[in-house]
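---------- Forwarded message ----------

FYI, see the Cytochrome c record below. Original note from H. follows.
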Amino acid sequence: MKHFAIILALMVLFACSSDKKKQQQSPAEVAEAKTTMSPKIQKGLRVYKSNCLACHQADGSGIARVNPPLIGTKWVLGDKETLIGVVLNGLEGKIEVDSVKYNSVMNSFSYLSDEEVAALLTYVRQSWGNDASEIMAQDVAAVRSKED
């Protein structure tokens, strides 16, 4: 258990110390991004930064062989209910993303509101070159109600 805690701490440290120059934007770039993003996408970005960035990175690329990417994968672009279920319930065990195997733990984010989950997943499904449909709060509520 002690080794797991050390590995987890190192993963978080690595994620936080990744190339910050690449992630920094000028004030003009930040202002332009805010004017071109819908309020829902802006909210999704805030939720992403607070809950997902450390593991999946600012550019959605993930951490090699630890946390999968969110770019162009069937997990993100595919069935909405599956994706919503992953966020609400977390995910543990072996999965394969783009022919790479992962065996990690993603915590549940069921504490997020339906609106926050919808905004988060819309942001993910429409960022980094992803071009998938919006997720509505009603979609999240429907998945949540099936689980009760």
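H. also flagged this: The chain has a mean pLDDT of 84.
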